[in-house]
Specification:
By secondary structure, the protein is an all-alpha fold. It is 67% helix and 0% strand. It has 6 helices and no strands. It has helices spanning 3-9, 21-30, 34-42, 47-60, 63-72, 82-95. Helix 2 (21-30) runs antiparallel to helix 3 and helix 2 (21-30) packs parallel to helix 4 (47-60). The chain is globular, with a radius of gyration of 12 Å. The relative contact order is 0.15.
């Protein structure tokens, strides 16, 4: 799946069936369902899930919690727009 195809899927009522849980979380986040996205990443583990977890808490405005999750993946909390980080995350997941 390409980034463009993923973006186009945001107009659907459900995420595409063949995508990972982490991509599903970002799909729900982009569709205004932060809680659903957060619930999904709470059930995943590892670098990707933790990075999305950090992003979601930054979006929520809980910067302390966000910083904790960024530290788990060896990153500092970024100073970039949320939509730019969302795009980075989606591209990372689609290409790895």
């Amino acid at each position: 799946m390409t980034f463009e195809e993923f973006q186009n899927s945001l107009n659907q009522s459900q995420p595409p069936g063949q995508i990972s849980q982490n991509l599903q979380a970002l799909w729900y986040d982009a569709n205004g369902e932060w809680n659903k996205a957060h619930n999904i990443v709470q059930e995943t583990s590892g670098f990707e899930g933790d990075w999305i977890h950090a992003y979601l808490h930054r979006k929520e405005g809980d910067l302390s919690n966000s910083s904790y999750w960024y530290s788990r993946v060896g990153k500092k909390r970024p100073d970039i727009p949320l939509d730019v980080e969302w795009e980075e995350l989606v591209n990372y997941l689609l290409n790895n």
